[in-house]
Amino acid sequence: MKEEFLHWLWKNRYYDVSCLHNNESGEIEVITPGEYNTDSGPDFFNTRLEISGTHWAGNTEIHINSSDWFRHGHHTDHAYDNVILHLVIKNDADAYTASGRKLTTIELKFNNNLWDNYLRLVNSPKVIACSEYLGRIDQFYLHHWFYSLAVARLERKSTEITGILSRTDNDWEETLYRLISRYFGFRVNTDPFEMLASRLPLKLIRKHADKLHQVEALLFGTAGLLETSLFKESVSDEYYILLCREFNVLSAKYSIRPVDGWAWKFHRLRPANFPTLRIAQLAVLVASAGGLFSSILECRNSNDLRKIFSVSASEYWDTHYNFGHVCRKQEKHTGKQSVDLVLINAIAPLLFVYGRQKEISDKCEMAIDLLESLPPENNRLIADYSDAGVKPESAFMTQALLELRTYYCRNHMCLECHIGAKLIASGDEIRPSDSLFLEP
């Protein structure tokens, strides 16, 4: 038996009320179970009870065995003096507070199906433990939970963005530049892109925004991708030589410390996603926009935003994916999927933070509307939910599913998940009666 399971029973009142009787104290009526405490101290604060006509207010502590009270040292800890109720599975010893007061101890009783259902989910070998049972959940209930998850993901990203804002002295343009850079690297080159943006501030790029080749020199040089050992074919490449010459001057002027060029990953990437090409596209974006964040605030919908981020790399890259290696001529523009990735992970959360900080509710709503207007993301994690019967209709929905996967399914937090909790509490067995389960 797990204490977290007992916490869930008590918090949600899934116990058998007939057990709330103490031979010494009499009948107990629970007015409120209290506030669940995940830090040190009693498990529930501000519990309110009616015991034989007397109103009690205090804390509740929960154990498997009542003797755990002593094993955990609560009998000498005055932080537990305000405990008014001790809930256990087995009452094997009287418990006393540090001040010498004997606790009212109750053995919790409940439907055994709840425990069996819990074991069924947390011991499931499947990536999504409840995948075969999702069809039992009402669609309205699911959408309500998904909405909460998507907003929670926005909130969590808001905390990250607030940290970047703090490090950039509340410079929204610089913060946007760092966010965009991160997601231009997809998942594979996120780290080197973040290092690049932190070592090359936007204010330096802006000084040379009228000369694209200098912006490219700054970005490629700071990225460490102008190291001659990286691209053998670049030795006689005129454009590469020009960028190297420009960066030698600019790096000395600004004391730039480049990223290690070997940190960038090319292996198993489609040429269209090579970091060289992504940096070239980023150069056009930051060089052409006078005030990128200001332009974003003026947009009214996802189409307006897509126009801002739909850029093509400079002419050199029409015939190159890497320095010195010529390929068939083709304009290298940011694809729709790449643009949507930036809108979902950078622009929507930044608008949400801006709306919160400036107390402009329209911007918060715009962030949510943006996610709801964008098509669902397509990756393996989302496909797992689609296979289980959950078909996302928008990026807002897929963001919710990613939050669900990352913070609930992956950590087997079925009791905290609204879907898992509803299945466990259904009262019906969600397993064959002859199945065996190991306690987690």
Overview of this protein structure:
The chain is elongated and about 90 Å long. With 440 residues, it is of the alpha+beta class. The protein folds into two domains: 3-110, no CATH class; 168-373, no CATH class. It contains 17 helices and nine strands. Helix content is 47%, strand content 10%.
Task: Write out key terms for the chains shown.
440 residues; alpha+beta; seven-stranded mixed beta sheet; elongated; disordered C terminus
The percentage helix is 40-55%
**Separation, N- and C-terminal Cα atoms:** 9 Å
Beta-strand content bin: 5-15%
Name the helix and strand elements from N-terminus to C-terminus, one letter apiece. HEEEEEHEEHHHHHHHHHHEEHHHHH
Query: How many alpha or pi helices?
Result: 17
Compute the CA-based radius of gyration. 29 Å
Please state the structural category: alpha+beta
Count of structural domains: 2
Q: Care to give the gist of this entry?
A:
The chain has 440 residues and is an alpha+beta fold.
Write the layout of secondary structure elements.
Layout: H1 3-12, E1 21-22, E2 26-32, E3 35-36, E4 44-51, E5 54-62, H2 68-71, E6 83-88, E7 105-107, H3 112-122, H4 139-167, H5 172-184, H6 190-199, H7 202-206, H8 212-222, H9 238-254, H10 275-288, H11 292-298, H12 302-309, E8 320-322, E9 325-326, H13 336-358, H14 361-373, H15 380-387, H16 395-409, H17 418-424
Parallel strand pairs: 5-6, 6-7
Antiparallel strand pairs: 1-2, 2-4, 3-4, 4-5, 8-9
Helix pairs in contact: 3-17, 4-13, 4-16, 5-6, 5-10, 5-13, 8-9, 8-10, 12-13, 13-14
